[in-house]
Amino acid sequence: MIRVVVVDDHQIVRDGLVALLGALEGIEVVGTAADGQEALHVVREVLPEVVVMDIQMPRLDGIDAARFITGRHAGVSVLMLTMNEDDDTILAAMRAGASGYLLKGAGAEEVERAIRSAAAGGMVFGASLAARVADFFGRMGAPAPAVQVPFPELTERERTVLDLLAEGRSNDQIAAQLYVSNKTVRNAVSSIYAKLHASGRAEAIAKAKDAGLGRHPS
């Protein structure tokens, strides 16, 4: 059982996350807090595996709270869930010891995967942020942290096809963009359905969008 604390200054967001996580097998919400200061007390009392936390909060923001939590409780992972996606804030969260960074537009499946990965000691970024993080570290000349790849069961080609499906592209359009035959795309799509246990195109696209794919401009 993964024990989780939810921290957000907006009660409707906090309650929604509690309801979402409470319905997932193997995850238990053991505490909530409305700001970073309160989060420090709750974490000390219940010692969760994962803290899911907003950044912009009164009294003590999420980045400072993450720094305190990770500094005092080595077994607790902090997963940021925020609207803020600027590079400086992402970097500050990582320097504070955060194990992951998701945007609040993330789907339920993406949040669930991130929590499970953070609990296992992984470094997790939302699919829409992963490429930016890797590029940022590349420009610094430093190795990028291991970033969770959406649908690791797919090949790189299949993941590209799925991303294009989620953008609303037809098989013909995908084939033209990737310079492959229509048959190659059909085979990739069939393999995607099987590996994702999707009943068809609509379900595969829904899963892809939950993981943050298909957000590039058409």
CATH architecture of the largest domain: 3-Layer(aba) Sandwich
Number of domains: 2
Helical content band: 40-55%
Cα(first) to Cα(last) distance is: 41 Å
Bulk shape: elongated
| Number of helices, counting only DSSP H or I runs of 4 residues or more | 10
Report the CATH topology name of the largest domain.
Rossmann fold
Largest sheet properties: 6 strands, parallel
Low-confidence stretches: none
Radius of gyration in whole Å, from Cα? 19 Å
Q: What is the oligomer described by this structure?
A: single chain
The overall pLDDT, averaged over residues, is 84
Secondary structure class reads alpha/beta
Beta percentage is 5-15%
Strand order of the largest sheet: 2-1-3-4-5-6
Question: How is this structure best described in words?
Answer:
- By secondary structure, the chain is an alpha/beta fold.
- The protein has two domains: 2-140, 3-Layer(aba) Sandwich (Rossmann fold); 156-210, Winged helix-like DNA-binding domain superfamily/Winged helix DNA-binding domain (Arc Repressor Mutant, subunit A, Orthogonal Bundle), CATH 1.10.10.
- It contains ten helices and six strands; from the N terminus they run βαβαβαβαβαβααααα.
- It has helices at residues 11-22, 36-46, 62-72, 87-95, 108-119, 127-140, 156-166, 171-178, 182-196, 201-210; strands at residues 2-7, 27-33, 50-53, 77-82, 100-103, 124-125.
- It has a six-stranded parallel β-sheet with strand order 2-1-3-4-5-6, sandwiched between helices.
- Helix 5 links the parallel strand 5 and strand 6.
- It is elongated.
- The termini are far apart.
- The relative contact order is 0.10.
- The model has no long low-confidence stretch (mean pLDDT 84).
